Amino acid sequence: MNSQKIMNEFEEYILTYFNDFQDSKLKEAMLYALMGAGKRFRPRLIFSAVKDPYKAFPCALALELVHNYSLVHDDLPAMDDDDYRRGKLATHKKYGEALAILVGDALLTESFKVLALNYQGDTLKKLVDLLSSYAGAKGMVYGQYLDLENEGKSDISLDLLNEIDHYKTACLFIAALKMAMVLNHDEANADLYQALGEKIGILFQIQDDLFDIIRSEEETGKPQKSDLKKGKVTALRFKSVKEVESELAHEFAKTFDLIERFDFDTTELRELLEILKRR
Ligand code: GRG
Questions:
Q1: Distance CA 189, CA 186 (A)
Q2: Is residue 178 lining ligand 1, measured as CB closer than 6 Å?
Q3: CB–CB of 27/132 below 8 Å?
Q4: SS3 119
Q5: For a 10 Å CB count at each end of the chain, is N or C smaller?
């Protein structure tokens, strides 16, 4: 189900959404930020956890719009100050800072429009609530705030790092799974969706911390050790590469166990987790 065909159709769906936007540098820059080498991991996660992925396309697009806005803004000089993203120039490097800010604003705003156009009633209310909660000032934006506040500090605790990872990274994964929960009408199992989103988000972030150290610029699309050079707090501040690798193996095993607790066919979820493990 979660096949290349679905992902190709999802790419088409994204492009089609922008068909009626005025032709402009703004549209060009939005598509520059959105299309290309992104892994679409959050959409894949939603598709893996619902019965009908096509019904989840708008949720997946909304989430991907938010994710990409956050990357565009994160790369700005006032934030993480990165010149490259996904192996190409960051949006502000290609189109200038002012346009990159507008691109982020527009992608974020559009995410809620996508939901409004495609869902109704109680479902729509729940999805908007989820997306705004997990992406906003109680979620991802709060995580980015904590991250910026603590950059370059030497006395960060592991607890604080875990808190930053929860908000900055895991919240969007939790949003993905809870959107799937709403589409599945499966609120009775909310804790399970929440726990899986949390686990996958943290695994994802720890891998990202590790790759910053052990992978080349060609492999990650950004300069090697860029987090380290910026004095960012990462898992590698507290543990050796070997310790982080064994923690990842242990946590992946626990996450596979957690997936077994869902009462629907979890083949897709297991396959996606396997892809994440091997990436
Ligand atoms: C600017 C409000 C605001 C938030 C920014 C997402 C984020 C918060 C910062 C990006 C920096 C970072 C390393 C975040 C951790 C999450 C993460 C690993 C993002 C990259 O996600 P991928 O790997 O990206 O899914 P692709 O390119 O595949 O879409």
A1: 6
A2: no
A3: no
A4: coil
A5: C
Quote the tokens at residue 46: 């939603």
Name the residue ranges covered by the structural domains of the chain. Answer: 3-278
Regarding the beta carbon of 38 and ligand 1, being less than 6 Å apart is answered yes
**Which whole number is the average pLDDT over 133-153?**
94
Q: Is the CB of 205 under 6 A from ligand 1?
A: yes
pLDDT in tens, 67-110: 999 999 999 999 999 999 998 999 999 999 999 999 999 999 99
The reply to whether the predicted model has a pTM over 0.90 is yes
Nearest to 251 by CA among 207, 193, 194, 190: 207
Residue type, 200: I
**Confidence tier at 131 by pLDDT (50, 70, 90):** very high
pLDDT in tens, 215-264: 888 877 777 887 777 777 788 888 899 999 999 999 999 999 999 999 99
Beta bridge partners of 125: none
Query: Would the CB of 147 count as within 6 Å of ligand 1?
Result: no
CB 232, CB 184: distance < 8 Å: no
Q: What tokens does 175 get?
A: 């949003």
**169 in contact with ligand 1, CB cutoff 6 A:** yes
Ligand 1 atom with the shortest distance to the CA of 221: 27
Mutational test site, ligand 1, from 46, 72, 162, 168, max ligand atoms within 8 Å of CB: 168
C-alpha span between 151 and 64 (Å, rounded): 26
Dist CA 189 CA 259 (whole Å): 12
Q: Identify the residue whose C-alpha is closest to ligand 1 atom 2.
A: 141
Fold of 3-278: Farnesyl Diphosphate Synthase (1.10.600)
Per-residue pLDDT of 153-182, as tens digits, reads 888 899 999 999 999 999 999 999 999 999
Find the 67 Cα to ligand 1 centroid distance in Å.
Answer: 7
